[in-house]
Amino acid sequence: xxxxxxEAGSTSGDAEALAAVAAARRSVADRLVTPWWYHPxxxxxxxxxxxxxxxGDWWVTxxxxxxxxxxxxxxxxxxxxxxxxxxxxxxxxxxxxWSSLMGVVAGLGIAAAILLAFAGVPDVWVWxxxxxxxxxxxxxxxxxxxxxxxxLRGER
Length: 156
Description:
Elements: H1 2-31, H2 38-55, H3 58-83, H4 94-119, H5 123-153
Helix pairs in contact: 1-5, 2-3, 2-4, 2-5, 4-5
């Protein structure tokens, strides 16, 4: 009988602990409001990097990489300053698919731009691919944000 009482008390404590965790997750979700300019800035950084890689000499590619890395670091720092937290996008859950899709879009876009440049097509097509990356990243990134907040709130 004492074991049953112990387990019942433990269950009540477990329920309280789980409720506290759920409340903390909802609080984090409420704080994770990405600024309107975040994803457009990320798209521009990726588009610029695409052009630098596909059309530039080695030193232009290197400068493009440095600018991209510094810009991405500044975006992370701004997000952290604004929300008090940073999530990599690779946490398990539905949001991860959207984070991964951003990486796939960027990777395939950069590869396509490089192939176009090597194929000798007019440079304007590399710029078109870079612009497409910049534009497509925005709605994917915003969907990632919505999915992440929903996941943290326990809505999924």
